[in-house]
Specification:
With 366 residues, the chain is an alpha+beta fold. The protein has a single domain (4-364), classed as B-lactam Antibiotic, Isopenicillin N Synthase, Chain (Jelly Rolls, Sandwich). 30% of the residues lie in helices and 19% in strands. The chain has helices at 4-18, 21-27, 41-44, 74-90, 103-117, 121-125, 176-200, 207-210, 280-285, 343-353; strands at 64-66, 93-97, 137-140, 155-162, 217-224, 234-239, 245-250, 256-260, 263-266, 274-278, 295-298, 305-312, 322-323, 341-342. It has an eight-stranded mixed sheet with strand order 1-2-10-7-12-5-4-3. A four-stranded antiparallel sheet has the order 6-11-8-9, with no helix packed on it. Helix 4 (74-90) packs across helix 7 (176-200) and helix 5 packs across helix 7. The chain starts with a helix and ends in a 13-residue tail after the last helix.
C-alpha cells in the first residue's frame, strides 16, 4: 500500500499533468476541493483579521498616495516622498493613484489575462510548462507545487519583459499586444517610484536605479477561480515578495490582505489604483529601513479573481550582480544586517523552501 507521502506526490503529478490548472478542476464541476489544496486550519485563521476599526484609529487605514504632479511640483513631491517613506517603513505597502497609466490600459490588461486563462483547453495546454528559466512565456499552477506544504487555488502565467522582452509571436495572441503596452508603462512607473524611494532614504534620486533595482521586470497574470470550499484553502499563501518592488493591478473582487501590526488588513480595491509593495531585496539593500511585509490572497466563492503582478527582479536572468546593504544606510546605530548575495542564490533557497509562511531573509542575516 502506498504511503501518505506517495499518495500526495501521485495526486500532485496527476494534477500537474492535466495542464489545466485549478480552472480545470472547477470546469469539471467539483463541489469538494482535492486534498492537495487543503491548508492546515491553524495557519488559515491566525493572526486575527481587522473587522471593526474605530474611525479615529488610523493605524489600520491602508496608505493611499496621490502621485499627481509629483514630477513637476516640488512641494507636492516632498509630501509624496514623506508619505512613501512612512508607508515603506511602517506598512511595506501602499496604493498609488494618478500614476500615469491610462485606465483603458489597466482594463485591457485585466481582460487580456482573463482571455488567456479562458482559452480553449487544447490551445492553452500548449503553453503549460515548468521551465521557468528557458521558456519565454510560462503558464503553470503553483510555482512551488512540489515543495510547498499545500497547493494554492490559483493559476498563473509569467514572462520576463525586461531587459530582453520576448518577440510578439512568443506570446499568446489573447494578451500579447496589451502585455507589451502594459509592461512598458509599468517600467516607466517603476523607475519613477525607485526615484521617490531613493529620496525617501535620503539618497540621490537615481541611487536605486543605478545599483540595478530596475534591471529586470517579470509580469505575472494570476487567475483565481471561484472556490467551492474557500475556508479550507488559500488563493495565495502567506508570503513576502522576493523582488525589489512589486506593482500589482487587481480587479474589484478583493481578497488581498497585508499583515500589519499582527493583524490581517484588507487592501481595498480602488478603480484605477495600483498596489505597490516592498520586496525582500529592497529590504536587504536598505538594511531593514524599508519592510518587505507578508501578505496573502483569500480563496473566494466569487470568481474568477484576476490580478497582474509586475516584479522588478533579475530572477530568471544569468546575472552575477551581488547585492548588500547600501553603504550610506549602514551606521554604528544600524550596523550591516545582511551578507552580500546574488539574486540567483536567494531564489534557489526560496524555491527549495516553498511558500511555507516563513520569511527567507533571516537565512541571509549576518
Amino acid at each position: 500500500m502506498m504511503s501518505t507521502k506517495s499518495d500526495r506526490e501521485a495526486e500532485l503529478r496527476a494534477f500537474d499533468e492535466t495542464k489545466l490548472g485549478v480552472k480545470g478542476i472547477v470546469d469539471a464541476g467539483v463541489t469538494t476541493i482535492p486534498s492537495i489544496f487543503i491548508h492546515p486550519i491553524s495557519k488559515l485563521h491566525l493572526p486575527p483579521k481587522i473587522t471593526d476599526i474605530d474611525d479615529d484609529d488610523d493605524r489600520f487605514l491602508f496608505p493611499i498616495i496621490d502621485l499627481r504632479e509629483s514630477e513637476n511640483d516640488l512641494e507636492h513631491r516632498k509630501k509624496v516622498v514623506e508619505e512613501i517613506r512612512e508607508a515603506s517603513e511602517k506598512w511595506g505597502f501602499f496604493q498609488v493613484t494618478n500614476h500615469g497609466i491610462p485606465n483603458m490600459v489597466l482594463e485591457d490588461m485585466i481582460k487580456g489575462v482573463r482571455g488567456f486563462f479562458e482559452l480553449d483547453n487544447e490551445v492553452k495546454k500548449c503553453y503549460y510548462t515548468r521551465d521557468f528559466v528557458n521558456d519565454k512565456f510560462v503558464y503553470h499552477s503553483n510555482v512551488d507545487l512540489y515543495t510547498g506544504p499545500a497547493a494554492n487555488w490559483r493559476d498563473s502565467f509569467s514572462c520576463m519583459m525586461a531587459p530582453n522582452p520576448p518577440r510578439l509571436d512568443e506570446l499568446p495572441p489573447s494578451c500579447r499586444e496589451i502585455l507589451m503596452e502594459y509592461s512598458g508603462q509599468v517600467m516607466k512607473l517603476g523607475i519613477m517610484l525607485f526615484g521617490l524611494l531613493s529620496e525617501a532614504l535620503g539618497l540621490k534620486q537615481s541611487h536605486l536605479y543605478d545599483i540595478g533595482c530596475a534591471q529586470g521586470l517579470n509580469v505575472s497574470g494570476h487567475y483565481y477561480p471561484a472556490c467551492p470550499q474557500p475556508k479550507l484553502t488559500m488563493g495565495t499563501s502567506k508570503h513576502a515578495d522576493i523582488d525589489f518592488l512589486t506593482i500589482l493591478l487587481q480587479d474589484q473582487i478583493g481578497g488581498l490582505q497585508v499583515l500589519h501590526q499582527n493583524h490581517w488588513v484588507d487592501v481595498p480595491p480602488i478603480p484605477g489604483a495600483l498596489v505597490i509593495n516592498i520586496g525582500d531585496h529592497l529590504q536587504l539593500v536598505t538594511n531593514d529601513r524599508f519592510k518587505s511585509v507578508e501578505h496573502r490572497v483569500l480563496a473566494n466563492h466569487k470568481g474568477p479573481r484576476v490580478s497582474v503582478a509586475s516584479f522588478f527582479s533579475t530572477l530568471f536572468q544569468e546575472s552575477s550582480t551581488r547585492f548588500r546593504p547600501i553603504e550610506e544606510l549602514v551606521t554604528d546605530e544600524n550596523p550591516q544586517k545582511y551578507r552580500e548575495i546574488t539574486v540567483k542564490e536567494y531564489y534557489a533557497y526560496f524555491l527549495g523552501k516553498g511558500l511555507d509562511g516563513t520569511s527567507v531573509l533571516p537565512h541571509f542575516k549576518i
